[in-house]
Amino acid sequence: MITKPSDALPPSRLERVLAGEILSPPPVWLMRQAGRYLPEYREVRARAGSFLDLCYDPKLAAEVTLQPINRFGFDAAILFSDILVVPHALGQEVGFTEGEGPRLDPIAGEAALGRLDLSQATKRYERVYETVARVRSTLPRETALIGFCGAPWTVATYMVAGRGSPDQAAARLWAYRDPAGFARLIDLLVESSVEYLAGQVAAGAGVLQIFDSWAGSLPDSELDRWVIRPTVDLLARLRSRGVTVPVIGFARGVGARAPSYLAATGVDAIGCDTAMSRSTMLELARTTAVQGNLDPLVLVAGGDRLDRDVRSLLAAMTGKRHVFNLGHGIVPETPTEHVARLVALIRGERV
Ligand code: 1CP
Questions:
Q1: Per-residue pLDDT for 142 more than 60?
Q2: Residue 266: CB within 6 Å of ligand 1?
Q3: Residue ID of nearest Cα to ligand 1 atom 2
Q4: Most exposed among 10, 34, 43, 313, judged by the fewest C-beta atoms under 10 Å?
Q5: Is 82 one of the annotated active-site residues of the chain?
Q6: Which of 111-136 are b and which e, b meaning 16 or more Cβ less than 10 Å from the residue's Cβ?
Q7: How far apart are the CA of 61 and the centre of ligand 1, in A?
Q8: Could you give the C-alpha distances from 348 to 298, 314, 343, 345, in angstroms and in order?
Q9: Cβ(258)–Cβ(270) under 8 Å?
Q10: Residues 221-253: pLDDT tens digits?
């Protein structure tokens, strides 16, 4: 059993909901809450040099992690890092160009897997663990700290295409043409992600989230093989290492397949994307905690529309295990006053 620094703390409101309680108001945090919509983030980002330098600088990454907590008092902080730290740590070239997103030296086939080095990754992760420890030591006791990784499928889509792609075609093609070779890449990612998450928990993360942002690009016949089974494997290995913290699964775009993802993986809570129907959310809420669904663009729009959508989501989830969040990451155009308004609406405060 791993004893982690967070064992000494009383459970946060987020952890209470993940453990089965129903809380009103629900705990709230936002995906990508530390990011470009915050002027204080842009200031640190400019000082840090490259985006990856920021991810690997424990002092600056901790500062950025805490910024949205200091400004809005969210119920949880999420480690500032990126899902592409894992391929970078494994030895793949990864860069982020302003306004263009990530660029990687694409992994073209099984032969290229020999370039990836698990033991090197383990060493590089240590800087991220140091960020986690720094954040936990300064974070208010009642605020949860979420660690994360990308799910193997989603991370593989970037590694194979060398960039974000609209249809994840390169990874899908490799998986069809050479499932055994592609499975080796997935297995390697499972192994390295288990290491990465266990390290984050040992350093103080009390909750984990697995981002499978591109789960929805797979046909039904492939979802089990490349999304569900790797997640089951990852969780089983994590649990066998003595990691007991709750895990939130965010399989974006799976729609009505979310209940089977939940049942098969046994995640402790489920992230709901923007397109998920209310009826699927309510079905999921019968057996688990549900998180998310508010359209990030409604938060950009603000005004009456924001008020209405927030109230409608809160009303629908009354009496359920609910964690308030967006259906995807907050976008850089979001006015900070709208975020403040959102938090006040959820908490029933006057604004
Ligand atoms: O220059 C910058 O500041 C780059 C913007 C940025 C930020 C703020 C990127 C590049 N990553 C991040 C941080 C980040 N990414 C966090 C930090 C914690 C927080 O939530 O505050 C997290 C959890 C992520 C996760 C992430 N990165 C995902 C999964 C969630 C999602 O949005 O679907 C994915 C797919 C990425 C890849 C990535 N990193 C950055 C960008 C622009 C992208 C998307 C690229 C694409 O597909 O086009």
A1: yes
A2: no
A3: 51
A4: 10
A5: yes
A6: ebbeebeeeebeebbebbbbbbbbbb
A7: 14
A8: 19, 11, 8, 5
A9: yes
A10: 999 999 999 999 999 999 999 999 999 999 999
Catalytic residue among 45, 134, 229, 252: 45
Tell me the C-alpha distance between 240 and 258, whole Å.
25
- The structure tokens listed for 38 are 């915050």
Alpha helices, H only, the chain: 13-18, 39-48, 51-55, 58-72, 85-89, 118-138, 152-161, 169-177, 179-203, 220-223, 229-240, 258-265, 278-285, 296-301, 303-316, 336-347
Whether the CB of 101 sits within 6 Å of ligand 1 = yes
Kindly tell me the burial class for residue 37, based on how many C-beta atoms sit within 10 Å of its own C-beta (0-12, 13-18, 19 or more): buried
Q: Give SS3 for 322.
A: strand
32 is catalytic: yes
Predicted TM-score (pTM) above 0.85: yes
Residue 250 CA to residue 209 CA, distance in Å, equals: 7
Q: What is the CA angle 298-299-305, rounded to 5? A: 50
CA of 296 to the centre of ligand 1 (A): 14
Assess whether 45 carries a catalytic annotation: yes
Q: Which tens digit of pLDDT belongs to each residue from 22-62?
A: 999 999 999 999 999 999 999 999 999 999 999 999 999 99
Distance of CA 79 to the CA centre of its chain: 9
Q: Are 16 and 25 in contact (CB under 8 A)?
A: no
